[in-house]
């Protein structure tokens, strides 16, 4: 494998960082690398908020589920799906703008995710570690107020970036044959393959360096599908102008 493939297959979430700070030049290079990601119709519907104010970082850490590494990492950023800028540009160009469409929401959210993953890869190639923060969506309205986000912009997730102060093991992934199908969706072997993977994950959780536990992949999924996960998001998005028409 070439070094890029090795890097991609060795990703770990880092939740403990050293005190070393990344240079602003390197940080800007990471964001420029993010801009190189694919973007639907060149819409570039993503804005990145670099949260430097320590007080705001501490508030966001609490609102995102008391994830203290938000406060302590070198750089913390929030990736926002941003339709305000492209809608305004189209309006200035003379378009009779239609907003609130579901496809617009999908495009902006995908743009943010693609840009973020480019930033993550660029950061890891420089020896940095990252951790995505989906907990941003626990309290999206409050975090939007902190970041002064206007309508047609919403925070998709955050990202901690910094120099790692831990060496967690790479978490196993589902077997390739489980997620790679040929010509059509065929799940005839999924049950057996998932059962085998569950045992792989049980061994991983028992043996890993930190936070040992005795569980499986399937058991870890139960909270996601036995409770209404972040039910506030639909109304929050509607109020921000993402009407899903």
From TrEMBL:
CDD domains, per the entry: NfsA-like (cd02146)
Pfam entry (one): Nitroreductase
Domain Nitroreductase: 9-163
Record keyword Oxidoreductase present: yes
Superkingdom of origin organism: Bacteria
An example Gene Ontology molecular-function term: oxidoreductase activity
Keyword annotations: Flavoprotein, FMN, NADP, Oxidoreductase
Flavoprotein keyword on record: yes
UniProt-listed NCBIfam families: PRK10765.1 (NF008033)
Family matches, as PANTHER family: NADPH-DEPENDENT OXIDOREDUCTASE (PTHR43425:SF3), OXYGEN-INSENSITIVE NADPH NITROREDUCTASE (PTHR43425)
Family named by the database record: Belongs to the flavin oxidoreductase frp family.
Name assigned to this protein: Oxygen-insensitive NADPH nitroreductase
Organism: Marinobacter profundi
